[in-house]
Amino acid sequence: MRMGRPAGPRHTELLVAAGFAVVVGGCLTATAVFPPGEIVGRIAVLAAVLCVFAARTADPLAALATAVMGWLVATGFLVNREGELRFTGWPDLLRLAVLVAAVAIGTLWGRIRIARQYAAVTIIEIAPDDPLLADAAALAEPAGSARAVNH
Questions:
Q1: Which of 70, 88, 124, 144 could pair covalently with 23 via S-S, beta carbons 3.0-4.6 A apart?
Q2: At what angle do helices 60-73 and 9-33 cross, to 10 degrees?
Q3: Mind spelling out the 3-state secondary structure of 60-105?
């Protein structure tokens, strides 16, 4: 998948919807891994899931919306049981900061990945006959890619 330009509004809307599904899945995973009293572990699992989602989408607006949804669902179901949103001040703000930092790191990671792929494609399009570019293209390919390099 080659993404060289920013996501459009309709693309972002779809990613926000997908982000909600990721939040629910991340919360279910966190509850399966950690018992009810382990709030830090549960938030860490959710933050890791949201970081990977943000890295794959590389859309800052969708990632931020997903972090806020994650914070609300985590506050209601991972911290307070039965979906009750009770805010306790600094601990809640710290959890929000952790989730926002996770999606910021993920988005940056995704943007760097896309920029590297775009740069490699641009170089190959400028000078397609250079034998060294085949090796450069092989280095720019994601791990596990099935594309072969001809010498």
A1: 70
A2: 40
A3: HHHHHHHHHHHHHHHHHHHHCHHHCCCCCCHHHHHHHHHHHHHHHH
Tell me, what DSSP letter sits at residue 26? H
C-alpha gyration radius of the chain:
19
**Which among 151, 41, 35, 51 is positioned nearest to 100, based on CA atoms?**
51
* Residue 129 φ then ψ, to 5°: -95, 0
What's the CA gap between 54 and 64, in Å, rounded?
9
86: how many CB neighbours lie within 10 A of its CB?
Answer: 9
CA distances in angstroms from 58 to 11, 30, 109, 139, listed in the order given: 12, 23, 8, 21
What is the pTM (predicted TM-score) of this model?
0.73
Phi, psi of 59 (to 5 degrees): -115, 110
Q: Is the dihedral of CA 101, 18, 91, 32 positive or negative?
A: negative
Instruction: Give 90-117 pLDDT, tens digit per residue.
Output: 999 999 999 999 999 999 999 998 888 7
For the segment 115-141, what is each residue's pLDDT rounded down to a tens digit? 887 776 666 566 666 666 666 667 666
Rounded-to-integer distance, Cα 31 and Cα 106, Å: 22
